[in-house]
Design a protein that fits this description.
Elements (H helix, E strand, L loop, with lengths): L11 H10 L5 H7 L3 E3 L5 E3 L1 H11 L34 H7 L7 E5 L4 E5 L10 E3 L1
Antiparallel strand pairs: 1-2, 3-4, 4-5
Helix pairs in contact: 1-3
C-alpha cells in the first residue's frame, strides 16, 4: 500500500512562473505539476484545485477576504450616501478619508451650491481635481 504523501506545493512567484511555463495544459495538470495533489493510502492521486486556485489568487496579490490584517475592526464599507444628523451636522466617515489618502489636519475650503457642497483642499491648484470633493 502506498503511503499518504503531500508533495511540496509551489507558492508566490515560483507558482506564477510555473503556471506560465505550463502554457495550455488543463487546470488539473497545472495544479498537479505545481504540487497541489495528494496520494491517498489506496494510491489514488487527488488534485486539490481549491488550494491551487487560492494559492494563485494569493500569488497575484488579490485579497478576497475582508480581513483587516490586524489593523482593528473591519467596520462598515462606504455606501457613498450620508444623512444630516439630528444636530444638523454632516459627517464624512473615515472610509472616505482613508480612500482619498487624507490625513488628520488636512484642511478644505467649503463652497455651497444649490444642492451640493464642494470641498477643495487648501493649497491645491485649480487644476488638481483629485483633491476636490463634491458632496
Amino acid at each position: 500500500m502506498a503511503k499518504n504523501t503531500q508533495p511540496q506545493s509551489l507558492t508566490g512567484l515560483d507558482l506564477l512562473e510555473k503556471v506560465k511555463d505550463l502554457g495550455n495544459l488543463s487546470k488539473e495538470k497545472k495544479a498537479r505539476a505545481c504540487g497541489y495533489y495528494t496520494v491517498t493510502k489506496n494510491g489514488v492521486e487527488r488534485v486539490n484545485m481549491m488550494k491551487f486556485l487560492n494559492a494563485l489568487i494569493d500569488a497575484e496579490g488579490i485579497h478576497l477576504d475582508s480581513s483587516t490584517n490586524g489593523h482593528g475592526k473591519g467596520g462598515r464599507s462606504a455606501s457613498y450616501k450620508i444623512s444630516v444628523q439630528s444636530n444638523g451636522n454632516l459627517l464624512i466617515g473615515s472610509a472616505y478619508t482613508k480612500k482619498m489618502g487624507l490625513d488628520s489636519g488636512d484642511e478644505f475650503e467649503i463652497t455651497l451650491g444649490r444642492k451640493h457642497i464642494h470641498l477643495r483642499q487648501v493649497g491645491a491648484s485649480d487644476e488638481d481635481e483629485e483633491q476636490t470633493i463634491a458632496i
